[in-house]
User: Fold this.
Amino acid sequence: VVGEVLGFVLPWQGDGYKVSRFVRSKLTFASPAWYRILPGRKSVFSVHGRETVDSAWATKMGKLQDGMPAPVMMPRISLEGFENVTQLEALLESPQEVGDALKKLCAEEKCGGFVVDA
Assistant:
């Protein structure tokens, strides 16, 4: 679709949140780098990152501003720590389980979806 813009927000960059608020009216989607899918100890994978969520920033980004709609929150989820092919194959062979976990997280965190960074 023409005219839609996805903005990645990297919290570890000093002004990442500040810049995203400045360009907020130009964003259709905001994708903060908050979540990670890691190999699980007792299961194929586990989702981490709730401790990195900045709720205050998300609330500010989610408010109507100057008549412009808020960008849809679509946090980035990176796949990390899958150091051997067996671990990665196990993850890829569990699409329903991964989808269910992300759907649950999306409902709990009230976001519009996720951007998966492999």
Q: What stands out?
A: The first helix runs from residue 16 to 22. The chain has a mean pLDDT of 90. The radius of gyration is 16 Å. Residues 58 and 114 are 15 Å apart (CA to CA).
